[in-house]
Amino acid sequence: MAAVDVLNSAGEKVSETQLPDEIFSIPVKTSVLHEVVRSQLAARREGSAASKTRGMIKGSTRKLFRQKGTGNARAGSVKSPLRKGGGTIFGPSPRSFAYKVPEKVRKLALKMALSSKMEDKTLFVIDDIKLDKIKTKMLASVLGALNLDDILIVSDAQDTNLELSSRNIPDIKVIKTAGLNVYDILKYKNILLIESSIQNITGRLG
């Protein structure tokens, strides 16, 4: 197990904690990380492109003119795709771009993402972040003491004061361990684990 310093809100070392090697110190394969990030981004695509078929067009279903004797090509409804304002043939329709990656691969990628932060020495642990009220200035002072920016804060439980206080600080995100994902870990330069969240991460990935 790797020993990591546990800091307090003033940026001072107060203790040490052990991080399991099978989660925080495994070989990193970029191909695995790439596949999982691609699946996450694909799932976020809206796929909202749509066009109307002739059945969706509003208009009369009356035959435009009689079948024979006019010299024109036979024509039916005004909604025909051949006419201006008519329906579209084989046009796009709303769909999902999501595709699934095996659960074992997702877990492995999550471990690799955490290991990469550990390897780059951009993973930090804090004993707790206690905010008595929603105050951006209070959180900014804590991050200033830690000398961190562009940071992902991982909490073990819902903390409304922490989440709302972070909204006006650029390049910062607060996430619960249940929502921890590869994309967010790699997106932010630093990751700050609240000490109590380590047990939840270990239980989820161990």
Would you give an account of this structure?
The chain contains seven helices and six strands; from the N terminus they run E-E-H-H-H-E-H-E-H-E-H-E-H. Helix content is 33%, strand content 16%. The mean pLDDT is 91. The protein has two domains: 2-46 and 99-205, Ribosomal Protein L4, Chain: A (3-Layer(aba) Sandwich), CATH 3.40.1370.10; 51-91, no CATH class. The radius of gyration is 27 Å and the shape is elongated. Helix 5 (160-165) links the parallel strand 4 (151-155) and strand 5 (172-176). It starts with a strand and ends with a helix. With 206 residues, the protein is an alpha/beta fold. Strands 2-1-3-6-4-5 form a six-stranded mixed β-sheet.
User: What is the CATH architecture assignment of the largest domain?
Assistant: 3-Layer(aba) Sandwich
CATH topology (fold) name of the largest domain = Ribosomal Protein L4, Chain: A
Please count the helical segments.
Answer: 7
Low-confidence stretches: none
Order the strands across the largest sheet as they lie in space: 2-1-3-6-4-5
Q: What is the count of β-strands?
A: 6
Q: Beta-strand percentage?
A: 15-25%
Overall geometry comes to: elongated
- CATH H level of the largest domain: which superfamily? Ribosomal protein L4/L1
Q: Mind telling me the C-alpha Rg? A: 27 Å
Q: What's the level 1 CATH class of the largest domain?
A: Alpha Beta
| Topology as a string of helices (H) and strands (E) | EEHHHEHEHEHEH
**Gap from first CA to last CA:** 13 Å
Query: What is the averaged pLDDT score?
Result: 91
Total domain units: 2
Helix content: 25-40%
Largest sheet: 6 strands, mixed
Structural class: alpha/beta
